[in-house]
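2024-03-11 09:14:02 INFO worker-7 job=invfold-0412 stage=load source=structure_tokens
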């Protein structure tokens, strides 16, 4: 296959990436055969897997709207992924065009595509950086001048922390970000879980994602990631149960979600 314009030279087209596999699950077009195969295998094991992706995107939209209502006017979206319907800047700038958004991802396809669609938007940008190196990420996030670290920030860690292994200490990564943002900031986290469907979680964790390494964590481990933050109601809950706005948000059946989510407030 010829290299498409959206795939920089550094991208290995024979190896699945979490960003492109997720894009394939959402029906996007920035993925390769190897990503589509990984997504198809996941669907074979757990047929409602695409619903998890939709449910997660719906949580992202609601969390952004919640933060805007709470007065947040700038977002740091880490592990932002390949742009898809309902991107943070679209949701936020529709409500208030002055909102600023910095997308951060480790995947060059995600960052290149984000930078392309953001051309001409002075209030949004994209940065390639690694959440596992929070000091470097934060230093570089300050550079474009888009995010003012003296004003409250909406930090989005949506469907990314489960891509960090236990030894990479995801909880410490959240703590480093929490320490860097001012009081009044919010942190949204969603994370795949073994809490409700342990058998499906084990199947997906071990097989479908081999080579990618997704960690399905239990409720306690996900809740601990919010240490030091005041939980916004209703706390850490299944994805479709976090402040649903309409029936459209019920992509997954409550009681059977493969993801937990919550929003914490730095007070
Ligand atoms: N946040 C988006 C959403 O929820 O729709 C995309 C989620 S996607 C499943 C996870 C993203 O995290 C991928 O784009 C992947 O490249 C990115 N990612 C994985 N590890 C990362 C790391 N160490 N630092 C930054 N981004 C990372």
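2024-03-11 09:14:09 INFO worker-7 stage=emit residues=267
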């Amino acid at each position: 296959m010829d290299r498409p314009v959206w795939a920089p030279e550094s991208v290995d087209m024979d190896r699945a990436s979490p960003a492109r596999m997720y894009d394939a699950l959402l029906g996007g077009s920035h993925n390769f055969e190897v990503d589509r195969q990984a997504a198809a295998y996941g669907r074979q094991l757990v047929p409602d897997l695409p619903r998890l992706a939709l449910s997660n995107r719906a949580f992202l939209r609601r969390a952004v709207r919640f933060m805007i209502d709470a007065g947040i006017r700038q977002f740091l979206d880490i592990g932002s992924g390949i742009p898809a319907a309902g991107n943070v800047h679209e949701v936020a700038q529709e409500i208030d065009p002055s909102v600023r958004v910095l997308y951060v991802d480790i995947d060059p396809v995600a960052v290149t595509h984000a930078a392309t669609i953001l051309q001409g938007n002075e209030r949004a940008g994209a940065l390639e950086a690694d959440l596992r190196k929070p000091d470097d990420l934060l230093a570089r996030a300050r550079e474009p001048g888009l995010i003012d670290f003296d004003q409250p920030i909406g930090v989005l860690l949506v469907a990314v922390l489960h891509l960090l292994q236990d030894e990479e200490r995801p909880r410490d990564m959240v703590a480093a970000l929490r320490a860097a943002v001012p009081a009044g900031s919010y942190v949204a986290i969603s994370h795949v879980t073994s809490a409700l469907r342990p058998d499906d979680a084990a199947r997906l964790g071990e097989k479908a994602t081999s080579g990618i390494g997704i960690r399905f964590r239990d409720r306690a481990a996900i809740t601990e990631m919010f240490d030091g933050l005041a939980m916004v109601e209703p706390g850490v809950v299944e994805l479709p149960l976090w402040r649903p706005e309409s029936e459209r948000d019920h992509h997954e059946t409550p009681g059977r979600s493969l993801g937990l989510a919550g929003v914490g407030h730095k007070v």
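2024-03-11 09:14:09 INFO worker-7 stage=report msg="Residues 49-69 form the longest helix (21 residues)."
2024-03-11 09:14:10 INFO worker-7 job finished
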